[in-house]
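Q: Structure tokens for this one, please.
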Amino acid sequence: MSLLEVRDLRVAYGAIEAIKGISLDVEEGQVVTLIGTNGAGKTTTLRTLSGLLRPVAGQVVFDGTRLDQMKAHEIVTRGVAHSPEGRRIFPLMTVEENLELGGYSRKGEALVKDIESVFERFPRLEERRSQKAGTLSGGEQQMLAIGRALMSKPRLLMLDEPSMGLSPIMIQLIFETIAELKKAGTTILLVEQNASAALSLADVGYVLETGRVVLSGPGKELLDDENVRKAYLGED
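A: Here is the predicted structure, written as tokens:
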């Protein structure tokens, strides 16, 4: 049994069906990436898996438990964390307060230890621990969004467009962080506009078009697929 099993998932915004029967699997310890053009349904898929949207049909099973009818905060306690597109940090709260909110379900010394663990991973955040999050650079805010998601000690970490709007140096740092998390055994479901970088890192990739999976396979194989290279990597 896979850690995450999604079967025939359908999601609609009113009369518009955005997800049209997606099925996918994520094995424990894998990095799985979803690629596709804008409007393909990648972000909608993650928002549904984390309980922010309710599917109209299908099943989401995580470690043997149905998630598709649970509320978002219940899904977090089950071990699924979501770092959303656009970061969604709390700008008027400090870096440390944002991290504390990420670990809201945990208490005491364990919470303090985990905050220090995030600071070890992102030393720049420790330098700014008392700074308002809204005053951070885009790259620093992305570090904070990932760190906040890690505070719940997830078994599955979902990252939505972590490199969006960042400088090349920051993009490299973010992907190095994802590679380190993978090496440490963190299971990751990644949505990323940089398809080449995502597929290079991923064990498995799924290509989405207008709410459907049209191709899937090992990340390296998709990276070498001629149609994928033309459609998503900008190569002739």
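A few notes: The first helix runs from residue 42 to 49. The domain at 4-88+154-232 is CATH 3.40.50.300 (Rossmann fold).
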